[in-house]
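Quick check before the chapter quiz. The format below is the same one you will see on the exam, so make sure you can read both the input and the output lines.
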Amino acid sequence: MLIEDFPEAAIFGCQYFWIKNNVTTLSVNYEESGFRGYIDYFKAYTYKWWMPLTSISVIIKKQFFSKLGGFNPNLRFGEDFDLWIRFSLNYKVAYINEPLAYYNQDVDTSNRAIGGHKLYPPPDHFIFNLSYLRPFERKSIDLKKLLDGLRVRALMPYYSTGHYALEVKAILSIIDFTRQSLFFRLFYSAPVPFVRFYTWGMQVGSRLKRIIRQRIQV
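Here is the expected output.
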């Protein structure tokens, strides 16, 4: 068993199947198929920007969960990511690169935290509550890469709509854009009308793709 073979770990994860629009995709990790061992969570996440740990694919040792204070009850979105980061900073992460779980996205979006393009106020969203990690990301290039990558991705709908502009501007000011892809450099430097049109087009395209797939399957 993974837990018995890697006793120094406090959290254990596995590969999983991602189901969306009735399409099943295997999660991606930088390790070879069948790998069993300790992983660098930060590098694993940024390899292909697949979540290496999810709430449906982990086992946590209770004593360490308690020591870290569990999930942050003040967060309504991203409380799981916040916890995985704290685990990764304090303990080892063991992982088996074998699909042992299903992550089903095909549910009513009104019942999902991320559904319906919801824009949570800053106190509720993890991306606005990462200041406690600043000392750590100054020391870790890999953590800095992960956090900045999540920042540019999570802030797109806020930036395009102008919601919480001051808070968004403050976060964007600490991102190292020289390490971001050309897409994100252009997105955050393009004229606002263009950004809004692009975001609207992506949302429409996503809805159309979902409708087309549903009709094909029927």
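If your answer matched, good. The chain has two domains: 1-107, 119-218.
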